[in-house]
Amino acid sequence: MKWSRIFVALVVALFAIQLIPVARTNPPVVSAVPAPVEVASILKRACNDCHSHETVWPLQAYVAPLSWYVAHDVKEGREEFNLSAWGPKQAERARKELAKEIEKGAMPPSLYVVAHPGAKLSAADKALLAAWARGL
């Protein structure tokens, strides 16, 4: 009897947290990245979902508590490096940090790659992105 009450309480809580609103926005693109086609293709495939205003919101972005995690990561990613609001600040950050983050394997994050295998960067992808970032 005790376990069934706990189970019912958990189910009710799971349904209740679905009512908490989560911001899943895609504001207009302010300015695009001036990158060669090959680089732009890699950025779109591996970076856009968290670092642009062109996020493709996955199913888990609509189910709490995962939705909270996804929305938080996108918000943070856009604040750190936004491919849809490209300007001098973004170019400078890319030049200084992007190559290092990619080369050490920090971007894209492992958990993201597990959920989005197409975002995995090959050695050639990493080299191309690093060279592009350093040339900004």
Average residue pLDDT: 89
Structural class, by secondary structure, is mainly alpha
User: How many structural units, i.e. domains?
Assistant: 1
Radius of gyration: 18 Å
The low-confidence parts are none
Gap from first CA to last CA: 65 Å
Helix content: 55-70%
Q: How many strands appear in the DSSP assignment?
A: 0
Strand residues, percent: under 5%
Biggest sheet: strands, sense, closure? none
Give the ordered list of helices and strands. Answer: HHHHHHH
Helix tally?
7
| Dominant shape | elongated
Structure description:
With 136 residues, the chain is mainly α. The protein has one domain (2-134). Helix content is 58%, strand content 0%. Helix 2 packs across helix 7 and helix 5 (88-103) runs antiparallel to helix 7. It is elongated. It starts with a helix and ends with a helix. The model has no long low-confidence stretch (mean pLDDT 89).
Task: Describe this protein with a few key phrases.
136 residues
Helix and strand topology:
Blueprint: H1 2-17, H2 37-46, H3 48-51, H4 66-80, H5 88-103, H6 110-115, H7 123-134
Helix pairs in contact: 2-7, 5-7
Summarize the structure.
The chain contains 7 helices and no strands.
